[in-house]
Amino acid sequence: MRKSVFGIAGILLVLLCITLLLSLGAGSVMIPLDVVWQQVITGFTGENAQVSRILFDIRLPRSLFAAMAGASLGLTGLLMQTISQNDLADPYILGVSSGAGAGAVICIVTGLSTMLLGYGVYIGAFVGAALATASVLLLSGRNDNPLRLVLMGIGVSAIFSALTMFAIYAAKDEAQVRSAMFWLLGSLTGIQWKVVPVMMISLVFLMLFCWLYRHELDIMLLGSEEARSLGMSYQRLQRMSVIMASVSAAVVTSIAGVIGFVGLIVPHMARRIGRPDHASMLWVTVLLGALVMVVADALARSLFRPEELPIGILTSFLGAPVFLWIIWRQYAR
Amino acid sequence: MHDKDMLLETRKLSFNIGGKNVLCEVSAHFFENQITAIIGPNGSGKSTLLSFLTRKRVVGETSGTDGEVLFRGKPLSDMSSQSFARLAAVLPQFHHTILDFYVEDIVLMGRFPFKEKFQDYTAEDREKVRIAMEKAGVSHLALRKAGGLSGGELQRVMIARTLAQDTDLLFLDEPTNHLDVKHKLALMHLLRGCDKTVVAVLHDLSLVAQYTDYVVAMKDGKVYATGKTEEVLKPDILKEIFEVPFLRFEQAGKIYLNY
């Protein structure tokens, strides 16, 4: 039967708001919900200045970032699955994560990270991701075969992974190795307000792109031949989508490292609860991605209090069983 | 020689892949508002010829090609792919099914060539989709997912998508694939009554005999015989093409073939 996307999106939006509110209370210092609420409605100028600072300076930017990063990863995953016509694609399939990883680790190991106003790792990661994407696009050339694109991605990915391993192996001291490993695991620790606008702009552009090209992306699923016979320039859209998805994945990865499984599972879940066309998938994927990530982040910082778990580990731990369950159900026939 | 307007023609069209002549100096004509069948044994170049008529392959762009493909006397390659899609709908032999899409959304894709950039499909588009689904007999499947359909149902959904494009020109590659007798006849009847130019690759010669106006008969990449259906579908010609003997008898102006 036909499902109402607005209904589903509405429910998800309410759930997201509740989760965001609850997530503010979670962390090394647990803050009761009534205190959080009182702080939120007073605009974080409540009686306890220390609690206000924790909530506004540390937890709010982090939770907002988590929500936007989750939305972005979910949508990027959807875009990559459409581009590659493969349900197993995720935001990193074209080598963005390996490129970003290599860039970041090389910056950490060579000490470049301390330069460039402290943005060294972000910039290194972004440059690495851009290099990886550019290589994939160059190698695919004028060929628009999606399988070829994915295989090029795997090849390029392998080269950058080897580079990362080499950089870690060549690191001089243990602190650098630890710092590099920590980055590779993916973490939202230390997210500050200054990175929130970048994340927001990237997400808005990604959503705008997916909305403007929602019907074209549907047609893309038919494959290049049928798309062309319906008058669509397949390769142009493929290129634009690869660049859009890679830039979005690179932004998240540069700031928070490699957060696995969110971009793979969220589109699958969205397909199950909503309609499969891109116009509907856009909203459900964005909201579901945000929801999943906010929950995961709240768990990551409160499960082993006062220690914090890198969110990448948690999403893989939670995501892999969900993924297995989806595949189990989907291929039951 | 012919009393109809020529819409589409190939002149000495040749296509060579890896030293093998898939098409060899094919000159064929397709007339406006007529149904032309392309027949021939497996591997005789029928689908390849269709691929040039539908711009899937283009003379000059595709390597190993020679000759001309003309639409109303002008090279087909001059046209943009969008203008061509507004003019001609193609039903491919093998299509890509998006398993989790709803049938109505798949048929709606047929309206894509007419959609303005960044706009939604209009009420008119949806009306054309409704009519096309009714004609193809798939209205009752509108809210089913493509993944749950039978081969014949899916083929009719694809036919509906082709009809939804509502073009004057239809290219159909083995449109009766997977269809049962009832739906085969319904489709041919529909094509007969729709006043469009139809070019169809067909295997079922009794359908060709009863429902088409012209035939292009191919063998080994060459046009073996072409002309009005009743002139081409003669036992001696067919025997040469298909290498089996045929019997032909006529009743009430209809041709019946047996082999």
Please explain how this structure is put together.
The complex is a heterodimer of chains A (333) and B (259). With 333 residues, chain A is mainly alpha-helical. Chain A has one domain: ABC transporter involved in vitamin B12 uptake, BtuC. In chain A, 74% of the residues lie in helices and 0% in strands. Chain A has 14 helices and no strands. In chain A, helix 1 packs parallel to helix 13 (278-302), helix 4 (96-110) packs antiparallel against helix 7 (174-185) and helix 5 (120-140) runs antiparallel to helix 11 (234-256). The radius of gyration of chain A is 20 Å and the shape is globular. Chain B has two domains: 6-87 and 167-258, P-loop containing nucleotide triphosphate hydrolases (Rossmann fold, 3-Layer(aba) Sandwich); 96-166, no CATH class. Chain B is α/β, with parallel strands linked by helices. Chain B is built from nine helices and twelve strands. In chain B, 42% of the residues are buried. The A-B interface holds A 1-2, 212, 215, 218-219, 221-223, 225-226, 228-233, 271, 275-277 and B 54-56, 80-86, 90, 92, 95-96, 98, 100-102, 105, 109-110, 112-113, 115, 118, 120-121, 143, 165.
